[in-house]
Amino acid sequence: MSEPIFELKNIHYSYLGKYPALCGIDMTVKQGEKIAFIGANGSGKSTLLRILDGLIFPDSGVIKAFGKELNEDLFSLEDFSSSFRKKVGLLFQNPDVQLFCPTVKEDIVFGPLQLGVSRQEADKRLDEITTLFNINDLLNRAPHQLSIGEKRKVAIASTLVIDPDILLLDEPTAGLDPQTARQIIDIIIEANEKGKTIITATHDLHIVEEIADTVYILSRDKKIASFGASRELLADTALLQNHNLVHIHRHRHKDEIHIHPHQHLEHHL
Ligand SMILES: Nc1ncnc2c1ncn2[C@@H]1O[C@H](COP(=O)(O)OP(=O)(O)OP(=O)(O)O)[C@@H](O)[C@H]1O
Ligand SMILES: [Mg+2]
Hints:
By secondary structure, the protein is an alpha/beta fold. The protein is built from eleven helices and twelve strands. Helix 5 (104-114) packs across helix 6 and helix 5 (104-114) packs parallel to helix 7 (148-160).
């Protein structure tokens, strides 16, 4: 594989200078990789995606993207910021943060138009993405009136319509019905097969092996507790249990109730 697209060295970040969110993160990402961040609530997954997206900058440590150190000065350069935004797309965990136009249609074309795509090309992309996501019936509706799953679908469409090389996806399947979730996973995998880099934060362990070759487990103290091949990490029940990723489950078999750790690697039958 090629040169690293992201290099993070000893990244620390606190919100408002007093709420630690990342404490000493080192990682390297190469073009075309499939990576997942997993970990307990509050372990720093979304913050790490925001750092990779250049929305916030570390308090200390260095993040390089495409060989350049990311900081506010670099993003104040119009050329850099627009080429970075074309290359890197973030799906926010909360779709309400992402959708702000009066209609779904306007939200979907907003990103491409902002990035200098012609009206004709933006409309062509809108048609394609509408068909792919089967959201024709939502186009003229107000995003804030949609169900949570519909909002997530529209937010994913508005991220993909920009056609970024690197997709940062924060909980892409949360709140989606099983068939829609399946469809989104297939779209993500297909994008990776075409060479796109995919970095996903998720609690959905049963999708991790499909959407990631490498997994980072973030710990409650906002560090990387472990990383490695997804198949190996997901097989380590003790490690997953330590990081709130499996729970004790109660099953009734005939008249007996069994209690055992449950990983949610597969759906319940
Ligand atoms: N806007 C904010 N202001 C203050 N603290 C914040 C803010 N956003 C996140 N934090 C804190 O930063 C830490 C990391 O939060 P983050 O949202 O990155 O976690 P997460 O792993 O994505 O959690 P979840 O699984 O719930 O999505 C948490 O302790 C959280 O309380
Ligand atoms: Mg999060």
